[in-house]
Amino acid sequence: MKERRRFFLSLRMAGALPALLAATPLLCGQSLIESDPGRALSGTDLAVLEAREPRDDLPCRLTPLKPAVGFDLKFHSGYEVALPMRELAGLENLLTVIFRITPEGAPERTRYFTQKIRVPSIEADAKGDAYLQGAFDLGEGVYQVDWLMRDRAERVCASFWRAEAALTAKEKELALALPPLTAAPADEDEFADEPPGEKDYSNAPLSVKVLVNFAPQNSGAATLQRADTAALVSILRTIQRDPRIARYSVVAFNLQEQRILYRQEFSDRIDFQSIGEALKGLQLGRVDFARLQNKNSDSEFLGALIQSEFKVRDGGPVPDGLIIAGPKVMLPGGLPAEALREVGETEYPVFYLNYNLTPQLNPWRDSISQAVRYFKGLEFTISRPRELWSAVTEVVARIVKWKSGRRPTDASIRGSHLVPPQ
Q1: Residue 195 located in a structural domain
Q2: In this predicted structure, what is the pLDDT of residue 338?
Q3: Domain of 93?
């Protein structure tokens, strides 16, 4: 009996080549149709979309994905499609995906998308299914999605559904990144630059220093997962978008490699592209032999990092606040006490944004918590997008309060601290 096979057509519907899973054909990037769809699409395709009648000439099973807010403060939606392998049997084929998204009450904001999928030769007796995934981003609102896929024989699979992107009662205060009734391609490049937002300098503008541990949720993982990277970058973007912050200093590091990956001195924007380039050098699966010989090397690295980054260099700028972000760091030996004592009192408040998707599985304080508590800072657990938004809002409000009450020449105020959480 022949082995059952499955291969995946993993589409991110945003313009870059997808990850290859099993025997996947080469896929071309999806594109947003900017020109007149009447000219860009065939009359047959437009007729299928307009009719809104399901078709299964090309048998497929489509499952819509419910819109959900991500850490980037956008609604992520899409679909999954299963296509029997026998329907692709034969010489090379070409699948064309076309779909349009129409916001309810705003037909003038309809967007059309298209994708070409090249399929390699498939044996006539191939078993199992091919799987296709598509994704797109939405602003708040209700949308009509009209979708079709056809092959070279002009067989069509068509499906139609409504997608509602609605905030829950607890999420109502979120400042979403996409305007309402807006459909857009899903971001493929987490490190793409974004237009600068409006700033509010009615009070003295703030400067913050951010230390980010770019590491996976699972400390034993050999790679940094895309979801973890996206969440950590979203933390940085949320900080940059706050209108009260004018200058940013960023230190990206990885504790597992015991290495500072990237450093940006104070600037009016965070250089996301440079951070992305620096992360390409991560090799979490490799272990340095010298580090294996020293059981406390992780603790020593983190202690040295805190000593170096918490201290204000002679003549250097003093941040209005320091933020550490990243997953939990559970070091068996904890942090060297002398490393914390060496720093002394900080001249600014300290915060920890603990990216932890499953806090119920690990409720204990980690080694970074230990350091933040020593400096009488505040810790926030980030498990959901609304927690990220709330945490950054609270952090910036406390930095503003700290700065407005600080008198650098007053020794009785210099070095005071926020009260840690109970």
Answers
A1: no
A2: 83
A3: 7-185
SS3 211: strand
Contact criterion met (CB below 8 Å) for 403 and 414:
no
Helix (H, G, I), strand (E, B) or coil at 263: strand
276: its two tokens: 């992305």
Q: Which of 168, 73, 70, 69 is nearest to 393 (CA)?
A: 73
Strands, sheet with 93-103, edge to edge from the N-terminal-most edge strand: 31-32, 111-119, 93-103, 141-150, 156-165, 55-56
d(CA 421, CA 378) in angstroms, rounded, equals: 6
Which value, to the nearest 10 degrees, does the dihedral of the CA atoms of residues 201, 203, 209, 212 take? -70
In the predicted model, is pLDDT for residue 18 greater than 60? Answer: no
For residue 348, the domain's CATH number is 3.40.50
Residues found in the chain: 422
Among the listed residues 247, 418, 391, the one whose alpha carbon sits nearest the alpha carbon of residue 324: 391
Query: Residue for token digits 């592209």?
Result: 273
Check: CB of residue 31 under 8 Å from CB of residue 156. no
Please indicate, yes or no, if residue 148 is contained in any of the structural domains. Answer: yes
Q: CA–CA separation, 264 vs 325, rounded Å?
A: 16
Which is more confidently placed, 334 or 153? Answer: 153
Does 212 lie in the same domain as 181? no
Q: How far lies 288's CA from each of 257, 279, 284, 291, 292, in Å?
A: 8, 18, 10, 5, 7
- Total count of domains within the chain: 2
User: pTM for this structure?
Assistant: 0.77
Instruction: Tell whether 414 is covered by a domain.
Output: no
Q: Using only the alpha carbons of the chain, give its radius of gyration.
A: 25
CB-CB neighbours of 313 under 10 Å: 8
Residue 310 near residue 300, CB atoms below 8 Å: no
Q: Are residues 134 and 64 in the same domain?
A: yes
**Residue type (1 letter), 46:** L
In whole angstroms, give the CA distance from residue 228 to residue 272.
15
